[in-house]
Amino acid sequence: MANTKEVRNQIASIKGTQKITSAMELVAASKMKKTQDGMLEGRPYSEKIKDVIAHIATSSSEYSHPFYEERTPKKACFIVVSSDKGLCGGLNINLFKNVIAKSAELNEQGIESCFALIGLKSAAFFKTIGGEVVAKAAKLGDKPNPDDLIGLTKVVLDLHKNGDIDQAYLCSNAFVNTMTQQPTVEQLIPLPAIEQDSLASTHWDYIYEPEAKELLEGLLTRYIESLIYQAVVENNACEQAAKMIAMKNATDNAGDLIKELELLYNNVRQAAITQELSEIVGGASAV
Amino acid sequence: MSNIKISIVSSSEEIYSGEATMVFATGSLGELGIAPGHTPLLTGLAPGPVRVQNGSEEETFFCSGGFVEVQPNAVTILSDTAERADSLDESEALKAKEAAEQSLADQQSTIDYTKAAAQLAEAVARLKTIQKLRKNI
């Protein structure tokens, strides 16, 4: 039978842990609000640029950009968006599972994979499992700066331009609601066609200043940057939500453990008292 | 049709959205004045002020580059980073200019010169916007 001191120590240590997890839960809850706002703030830009890209697709432009071109795929690049910190439940792992599944599927078709990693967790993960890593970005913080992602995006786009990769996928968690985060793997290049609106019915084209090629190049790069940025801020919101849930569960579990241990503690104490009493009684009758 | 819809957005926020009678911006090939009914146009945006005129009211924004899409009834400005011109800090702009100039002068370090030149152009444009605003006050 465990002695009372041992049990008491254990209770104290679990109580300490519970305090930490409940504090982390509160921190995550307050950050979640901010990251969700960040996610919403970025939306107008991505919607507007999507509109413009859709308009370009419906215009009768003679120039067709390589991002739309379907090549026979030989190699694909996965842009994996993960969190910097752990303690957020299965958020990152679920995403990595999807990435690996997709990569394995492509591998069966004879398509190689390489990876561009955002966030420390993905860097650590791919370090252990291997895989060709072409670019990394980490420690973007709770309010990521779009400029920090330009380098990584450029690496991937340059690889595509040089013909080293033929496809690119964006892997991140989509924010469904606070309880649910959906790991997604979306095709980035070739760009999937955007739904066309009413403008498509008439024949028209933009005046391009300067050249269509130069402009579309810049605009599509911006578009892909905005998609990646949006994925990063959304993943941030997911991280905080997942962390809040994970920490809430941890706090609840610690509470249950403490209850059980307190019961055990009382049992042990009771047993010790009973034993002492019976010893005294035994001793008295022997005299 | 006397009004045109204007929205100015940057990747991290929506800066302005509303109606205008006339929009002035600095395109990559020169100044643009956009009135309602403009032909569809797609052009780069040079660092500089964007002025939105609605009747007698006028608002000025600073855009440090980006793209302008013009449809007959709507203007969309996709700015790289844009902020309210009023909130611009002149000393900040000067500092940025100095920093950019320094990186141009410092031949030893391995700096991307095209980037430095772009930074310079941006800092100068910021200053220009502030000076313009000052004159109007």
List the helices and strands and how they pair.
The complex is a heterodimer of chains A (287) and B (137).
Chain A lengths: L3 H38 L1 H16 L16 E7 L9 H18 L3 E7 L1 H10 L2 E6 L12 H12 L5 E9 L5 E9 L17 E3 L2 H75 L1
Parallel strand pairs in A: 1-2, 1-4, 2-3
Antiparallel strand pairs in A: 4-5
Helix pairs in contact in A: 1-6, 2-6, 5-6
Chain B lengths: L3 E7 L2 E8 L1 E6 L2 E5 L6 E5 L2 E7 L2 E7 L2 E6 L2 E6 L2 E3 L5 H16 L7 H24 L1
Parallel strand pairs in B: 1-9
Antiparallel strand pairs in B: 1-2, 3-4, 3-6, 5-8, 6-7, 7-10, 8-9
Describe this structure in words.
The complex is a heterodimer of chains A (287) and B (137). Chain A is of the alpha/beta class. Chain A has one domain: ATP synthase, F1 complex, gamma subunit (Pyruvate Kinase, Chain: A, domain 1, 3-Layer(aba) Sandwich). Chain A contains 6 helices and 6 strands; from the N terminus they run H-H-E-H-E-H-E-H-E-E-E-H. Chain A has a 5-stranded mixed β-sheet, sandwiched between helices. Chain A is elongated, with a radius of gyration of 28 Å. The two termini of chain A are 30 Å apart. Chain B has 137 residues and is α+β, with helices and mostly antiparallel strands. Chain B has 2 domains: 4-85, ATP Synthase, domain 1 (Sandwich), CATH 2.60.15; 88-136, Single alpha-helices involved in coiled-coils or other helix-helix interfaces, CATH 1.20.5. Helix content of chain B is 29%, strand content 44%. Chain B has helices at residues 90-105, 113-136; strands spanning 4-10, 13-20, 22-27, 30-34, 41-45, 48-54, 57-63, 66-71, 74-79, 82-84. In chain B, the strands form 2 sheets. Chain B has a 5-stranded mixed β-sheet with strand order 2-1-9-8-5, with no helix packed on it. In chain B, strands 4-3-6-7-10 form a 5-stranded antiparallel β-sheet. In chain B, a hairpin with a 2-residue loop joins strand 3 (22-27) and strand 4 (30-34). Chain B is globular and about 35 Å long. Residues 82-89 and 103-111 of chain B have low confidence and may be disordered. At the A-B interface, helix 2, strand 6 and helix 6 of A face strand 1, strand 2, strand 5 and strand 8 of B. Strand 6 (207-209) of chain A pairs parallel with strand 5 of chain B, so a sheet runs across the interface.
